[in-house]
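Lay summary

Proteins are chains of building blocks that fold into shapes. Our project writes down both the chain and a compact code for its shape. Here are two examples, one after the other.
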Amino acid sequence: MTVNDYGNGIIDYGNGIINYKGFNITYAVWENPDLCTFSTCPRSFQQIDYIPSLAGNALYLALFALILVAQIFFGIRYRTWGFLGGMVGGLALEILGYLSRVELHDNIFSSTWFKVYLVGLTIAPAFLSASIYLCLSRIIVIYGRTISRFRPAVYTITFICFDIFSLVLQAAGGAIAASSDEDDTQQTGVNIMIAGLAFQVVSLFLFMTMCADFAFAVSRHKSGLEPAHAALRSTTKFKAFVVALFASTLFIFIRSCYRVAELKEGFNGKLANQQVSFMILEGMMILLAVIPLTILHPGVAFQGSWRQANFKIRASRDKLLANGAVEKQEPTTAGDSERY
């Protein structure tokens, strides 16, 4: 039998057994740490330095599942399809992420569940942000397009594009970091994730700035508000929804700042291995973001005006004709005349 001492505490006995830090580890387990147990592998093989709380993560899992059911109910009832799509995507990923953490409680060595948790909880808020971005344009329609700095469609299209770009970076970085065992490649993936999260932070800050700018415009031009929606604007539900939307954005912003700081230190950093800070600044922030958007669901808050407050990306032909932007073509045949 040939014994090879590779240093760093690794000794290969040549008989299918590797001794590492006093543990005799088979080749199969050495190649696949998912097979590790506390009796066969050292704690340095754990995916994170702590054992995820079963009670805490199961609670988040249950709460996000209940909120998802409520969002589906309200979304179908009030036909808020775009808002529903973003919320379902985000909440489903939150559920998958906390399910993975529950599984990590039972097997902290599992790289599979670690990867699912990492990617799921990292990109989930991007979907939730998309739903929030859809609301601002409709709020602008309710208060009055004329007092807005930009057309309602500009806000939605701009921030949704920002969100997609951020999501692509986070997903790509997460996939690279989670699929590689090479330190350099993992770090590259982490850096891409950080770039995506940082871009999300900037986007959210810019969005909150635009919200504050519009709120200031509303306060200065009360005489120019849309009269058709005056009754809706005066209701407690609608006012509370506007406040809740800004609060939800702020909670996601705080969470994203935390994740940038966490990933900047790397998977072995202090923040990445502190359970309390994760449960508060990740889980609690997202929970506080989605609860108001469920209790004060836009379908409820807009009281039947959600679809009326929609915007058109392109002006209709009739409006263009009315404004003289399109020259009306005179029909030349009877068949042509019937088309107008």
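And here is the second example, written the same way.
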Amino acid sequence: MNSSSRRLVQYVGSVKLENFPNAQLRQTVQAFCEKQEQQARNSEVKKAEIKGTQLHQSHDDPSDNKPVISVRFKDEQDRRLGTGHVHEDGTGSVKWK
């Protein structure tokens, strides 16, 4: 790998991208995770742990009225850096530790 290429986030845990029955939602979650990893302020993000394949109401942010997919972002040593919520339309947020 040359120095100008960027390693994409590694997906860890029991839920993998290929587990999503909805291809559009899979692409949306993947794009959200890769965006978090590629942003300079999140350079420690190396892994994403997807917490399910079904949209659900956020338990962490009850004010968010849109259903979400939850993702834990981790560093190389599996330390949790933050938790993200991605909406079906690709918008979302991350609460960093």
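What can we say about the second shape? The chain has one helix and five strands.
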